[in-house]
Write a structure and sequence with these properties.
The chain is mostly beta strands. The protein folds into 2 domains: 198 residues, no CATH class; 117 residues, no CATH class. The protein contains 4 helices and 30 strands. The strands form 7 sheets. The protein has an 8-stranded antiparallel sheet, covered by helices on one side. Strand 24 and strand 25 form a beta hairpin. The longest helix has 15 residues. The two termini are 44 Å apart. The N terminus is likely disordered.
Length: 393
Amino acid sequence: MWAKRGVAVLAVWAVSLGTGAQHASAAPKVITKKTLAPGVVYQQITDTAVPYRVYTVEFDPVQPATFDTVLSASQIGTFARSSTMAANVGALAAINGDLNDWPGRPTHQFVTDGVVAQTGSRPGISFGFRRDERGGSIGYHPLVITARDAQAGTSVRVVSWNTETPATDQVVGYSGYGGKYEKPGTNQCSVRLAWPSALRWNAKHVGVGRDYTVDAVRCSSSTAMTVTTGTVVLSAKLSGKGATFVKSMRVGGTVHVGWSNGMSDAMDVISGNALILKNGVTQFASSCTADICDRNPRTAIGITATGHVILLVVDGRSSGSPGMTLYQLGREMKLLGAVDAMNLDGGGSATMWIKGMGVVNHPTDSSGERAVSNAIVILPGSDASEPAPRAAR
């Protein structure tokens, strides 16, 4: 990439990284460049004068390779290394993804192959990748989940998924991903939905949904509804608007559950904690003194004007590469060609793995690569696990 942009871009880089960069005597240098597959290019870039070590994978989604999000396990409660998750799905490349919460889950909303895993403890900044392989969107896009009782003609917003217990008047959702940590409880009215239909797009391909058949309805102060294989459960308190919605359902009836976050054609959604570049404008000032802005190892994802996806990891906490501030990270993404970009989990979690090369950066934990709850991968071909939603009704 640097060769294409020429010496002028390298000069801009030399003055853009902050303290000491004005006196840089060397230009950024491509140490390694490797084509992993058509449209998938890995690079290591370094500058000993700034100093920094940056690792990038640029992915052209019109090529056979595909983008995907992966979780450490099928249920909350497990961490795994990004390299392990990548190898398990036969990936070409991977980076660590969203920040992590105990006991082994992403911090923010997470959707994989059209299925909501969780809404998360807060919405965060999200990257939604288009199923038509034409890039994606980055921004603040909270998930909106709705349930509609086809017989009664009533709808309700499902305020959380595998994340919280219901408050007064609320309805929350649970699926198998919640495992033993997020599941229906006692003192709840719950409906178990089974035998899901195929996914369908919402109007204008903004989100997807599917029909379920009501399998059981129970309101109990002593017995909780269970999530069985292939089912989801909607729960509310024993009284209130949520309970009224649940109690109105009848076994054998049809309930449509769908989600949207305003991103067109998105089937995979992963989140981070900061928008660092928007419409080509860096979102953090060089003068930022908040802890989040400090120089650290970083992982980021960005999108170019042509829909290419850039995965980036920066080494940090060493004399050879102290890391980047969020201002510097935004500037770096812009110079690489991104117009929008967001910060993912960094620090000791920052990891880039390349097939045949292993972990190419230098994780800061004394034990090496850190186990995390989720990752971003580039697959060599189509994603066999991703469904093709039917047309909207």
